[in-house]
Amino acid sequence: MKTLITARGITKHFGATKALDGVDLDINAGEVHVLLGENGAGKSTLVKVLAGIHGQDAGTIEGHASLAVIHQELALVPELSVAENLFLNRLPRRFGFVDRAEMRRRAPELLQRVGLDVDPHAKVKDLGIAQQQMIEIARALDKNAGVLILDEPTAVLTETETDRLLQIMAQLRQNGVGLVFITHHLDEIQRIADRITILRDGRSVGVLGPRATTQHMIELMVGRPIDEQYPRAQQRPGQPLLSIEGLTRRGAFEDITIEVHAGEVVGIAGLVGAGRTEVARAAFGVDGYDHGTVKVDGKPLRRNDVQAAIKAGLGLVPEDRKGQGLVLTATVGQNLELVTLGDRDQKRLHDIAGKLRIKGRVEQPVKELSGGNQQKVVIGKWLLADPKVLILDEPTRGVDVGAKVEIYELINRMTAQGRAVLLVSSDLPEVIGMSDRVVVMAHGRVAGELPGGATQDQVMALAVQEISA
Ligand SMILES: Nc1ncnc2c1ncn2[C@@H]1O[C@H](COP(=O)(O)OP(=O)(O)O)[C@@H](O)[C@H]1O
Ligand SMILES: [Mg+2]
């Protein structure tokens, strides 16, 4: 097999952080090489060193293959059209002018290759995040590079889009392209990987073959045995701490009634668009509603009043953490203290940061952290505030397996202390595994409720049902 790129002993520091520590990596023609590791393990840094964006402090990179990279942070220009973005920096030219006819001709062809049905004239800012990702992929494909590196491309893709991408990757592999693929989804790894390099704390701790077990991958990643993926420790439920009664907002959700007791985790499952996030936001007071009541510990909340909700003991970890949960330019420590304001309990702050295994110093700006570590900061912020009821909306999206288990343990700790948790999650095994009861929503209504330990089929049967008006 032909080796396209050989990296040896790659070491990279960012100030006091050793992001990479003597990493070796081979990229072979006709192979999908997966990079696996917890958030902050050094995967993106390795990609950026290979791409020449960061210079390494030590180590060598050999090989002549041309490289195309799809970075974790999208690199499109929102104000430009889809076609212009596809040919960014390399617009087809004729007699020195941008050849718009050529661009118009080739754009649909490229979009079709990734199965994207959008108008090439549409502005990128008007597209969804998954569509933007597919445009980046189309653009990278057009470079016909010998090596294609994809840094967590599937984190924002739907199942169908992921299938399509894996097909494209398999096709490229067959054509002799060397692929490097970063993902946290172990099922994707089992479907496509030829080789798996596992990074932990900036070091390569193992290279596995295509038939590696998930157990083996996880244990290498986190550096300790994991006995249970969903370690829910059930409590005897106490008094109701969160009562959502008949909550209705026309056009969004209708007659939602959910009660969560002290010591309980209640899950909300449902398809995208079922209204789960809308209910969570309305209950917390971010958005308004038309009828119904929300009570915390028996006390009704004023609608559309987040401050009152927080004061009453309610917390929300939002789905869109960058937009709503964090001040990116502030440090980890400052973010952790956002809710508790002024309560400068340094010991607890470090304690929480340690428990969540946040990779990054308390003094570091949050924007320098990887996505999963940013999520841990949002959760840590609410744990420090110690609310009676915490609503978690997709708390582990983009979070690595090790950190997921830490987050589950923290949920268990909250409920063991008599708090209540409402868990909104699209991850079916998670919402089933970590909830004591699961409320299933469909089309803005409660379609039914299932006990913990229900099957995925039972949840899906309720989630897809048509509700007669
Ligand atoms: N530009 C940067 N400045 C400072 N620290 C960084 C920067 N990029 C990454 N790091 C740090 O390097 C480590 C590895 O990060 P990264 O490569 O993004 O991890 P991964 O992609 O595996 O989640 C982390 O501790 C992260 O905080
Ligand atoms: Mg990364």
TrEMBL record:
GO terms for molecular function: ATP binding; ATP hydrolysis activity. Signal peptide: none annotated. Residues 5-226, 236-468 form the ABC transporter domain. It comes from the Bacteria. The keyword Aminoacyl-tRNA synthetase does not apply. This is Ribose transport system ATP-binding protein. It holds the Pfam family ABC_tran. It comes from Lentzea albidocapillata subsp. violacea. InterPro entries: AAA+_ATPase, ABC_carbohydrate_import_ATPase, ABC_transporter-like_ATP-bd, ABC_transporter-like_CS, P-loop_NTPase.
